[in-house]
## 1
Amino acid sequence: MSGKIKIGLTGGIGSGKSTVADFLRKKGIKVFDADKLAKELMTSDEELKLELIKEFGEKTFSGGELNREYLANTIFVNPAKVEKINSIVHPAVKNKLTFLMNRELEKSNLVAAEAALIFESDMTEMFDYIWVVTADEEIRIKRVMERSGLSREEIIKRMENQIPEKEKISRADFVFYNNDSIEKLEENVSFMLSIIQKI
Ligand code: ATP
């Protein structure tokens, strides 16, 4: 491989993106998790914490940790507040992720980041290739029900908050259709990796 490549891995709820991320990690590729990073930054980045307190009040934190109940009951139920919190948190995540990916590429040629909201939070420019993992809606619902115990209605509600699968597929560089077994998915990812490593 000649170039240094950044892959952005995304997909709707239950599509299988974490499964692909884990497989890449097994292959020795560093995969950052943007959602996890966002949570870490919200409790460790002092500047970000101050901004959140300024906007949403002292109650945002309790004992240095995020006050999840307050967030769930007052922010995440209000679309304007969701937009506001995203406009504070997303730039910090993007900066940190870019820094971490660049640092990783000093010692390797390929790095990836898993993020549910690559399209929604305008992260596409950060990556060379966007990989979208998808599966038929009914399959995704069943897999999430099995994994989480959420009801069908709760899952559908969450799906409705994400951009439609069709749009994700049309904006992807590569699409993995995950309607079959995990082995088949991994085979397809290996194949794509072998192609990308020749670029
Ligand atoms: P979320 O955004 O909800 O975290 P995700 O896109 O990261 O979802 P995964 O966690 O990878 O999705 O997959 C959802 C569930 O479906 C997991 O329990 C996973 O083990 C299972 N799963 C993924 N792919 C397959 C497959 N091909 N066959 C059977 N089960 C699968």
## 2
Amino acid sequence: HYGDVTDSLMIINLIRKVKPNEIYNLSAQSHVAVSFQIPEYTANVDALGCLRILEAIKSLNLTKKIKFYQAGTSEMFGKVQEVPQTEKTPFYPRSPYGVAKVYGYWITINYRESYDIFACNGILFNHESPLRGLEFVTRKITDGVARIKLGIQNELLLGNLEAKRDWGFAGDFVHAMWLMLQTDKPDDYVIATGEQHSVRDFCEIAFGTVGLNLEDYVGVDPRFYRPAEVETLLGDPGKAKTELGWEPQVTFEQLVTMMVEEDIKRIEREIKLES
Ligand code: F7E
């Protein structure tokens, strides 16, 4: 089905047609840096998009039939007020993206409390995989490492190398989303690994997996700096562990290695096809 969360009628018609029992709202303009350039569009999709789905569920009288998952984000913590961040840590978003997601978070709670919808917020920290878009730092690095290793690129230009993130494997995190909708009572959960690494650490391991040294290839280009940066994020997944029985399975090193290996395989296939 085609769709767009800026189109209310389409959402209503699609729900009527598909009759889902679970809706996972992952729709977003999800790039933090881009949200500074298109803030109004980001708010329309990321904040009002969530409201439109909730309002569709309510106006179709399906509040008892559909469970709803809202993709919250660690970007809501932004300039962190506490370390590590838990479900109780106050938000301080640092981008139009983060601000729009705070609206999505609260409107989800508001519809849960006002209309008794089974609605949950997952507050997911960064989650990565070989499917990650090339505009995000992890995939930009692993794709760059693969190209450098295969001799088709000779440098990798990045922004803030000191930013620290709690990076996990997307497959593990999607499992947590599903678990949230299988509980008896809707609630909100931080999903994170509880481990933190810098962009520089990520580069070091990624270059290390192919026997190269990051210092020989990585340069800093201020074009990739953000007007306001989120310097450090570290989640406490304790509640998800106790209440959902969820724990991440893939380690940071395994994640980086998996992403580099997949990029090397993909680029080797592309080179073969071209020759
Ligand atoms: O940046 C720094 C950048 O764009 C991570 C989204 O899925 O996760 C993601 O948001 C860090 C930042 O992800 C480059 O300044 C350095 O500090 O990979 P990112 P993000 O902004 O953390 C959260 C949880 C979401 O919800 C978002 O939707 O890396 N950085 N150099 C760079 N970032 C990029 N993109 N490109 C660089 O060259």
